[in-house]
């Protein structure tokens, strides 16, 4: 396998960190190919059934299942969703009925039996679910919602799905419970859009981002975006406020812009942040048991001192 320099991206990693998937530029075939990487071994690409371009975007816990898409390139307006399972070739799952354009998977469960994402159906992007028993379905909207939206993350056991839903021209963070009933998460008064991106395994903690304008909030490409954390008792709150007021961290000069993932136990959160309006950097916060000071790391710097 030969990729041009800087022509590859790994998008998801297995539970033990030994495997990852993504996509890269295949030099000899001059096309994008789904890539699998294994610790201690060279990466390998996955060829699509008819030579289409392919990409892999999510991987289950033990690296036995990966999902992504093929097609959607020049002359191929509709991309098809695909699944790879250990010991089997790439399988085309297709799309929900009525799909007319772009489709993508964003996450899968630990068992690899439920995948979530988005499909353009009749010209509008809608949140979708695939599971091995029922195949594809479009996730329901709230009573006042338009049905537009996206499913971005799923609990490791599949019990809770998170993403966004459009209501009255605004995208609200949202989640679907075990019965796939949709629920909106409140927007911050100063923000017009938002997205829930990740959820703990028991569904009790959700993280995401509030945005000042419509874009892909998980990319953190606005200097005003704000990371939030949600639980059923307190609702959605700025993550930074929780760390300062409940855990006593001194975060003067810091701004947590987006929370993009959370561990199944709900104790470690990662995302994007800045110090004193400098460049965007990754952050990681570990929230221990009550009464113990959490640790927040940003670009190699630690904030673990209490406010005075």
What is the level 1 CATH name of the domain at 1-138?
A: Mainly Beta
Report the β-strand fraction as a percent range: over 45%
* Rg, Å, rounded: 20 Å
CATH topology of the domain at 1-138: Neuraminidase
Largest sheet: 5 strands, antiparallel
- What level of helicity do the residues show? under 10%
How are the elements arranged and paired?
Elements: E1 3-13, E2 19-26, E3 31-38, E4 44-46, E5 54-59, E6 65-71, E7 79-85, E8 91-94, E9 99-108, E10 114-121, E11 124-131, E12 135-138, E13 149-154, E14 161-167, E15 170-176, E16 182-184, E17 193-199, E18 206-211, E19 226-231, E20 235-238, H1 239-245, E21 254-262, E22 268-275, E23 281-286, E24 295-298, E25 301-303
Antiparallel strand pairs: 1-2, 2-3, 3-4, 5-6, 6-7, 7-8, 9-10, 10-11, 11-12, 13-14, 14-15, 15-16, 17-18, 18-19, 19-20, 21-22, 22-23, 23-24, 24-25
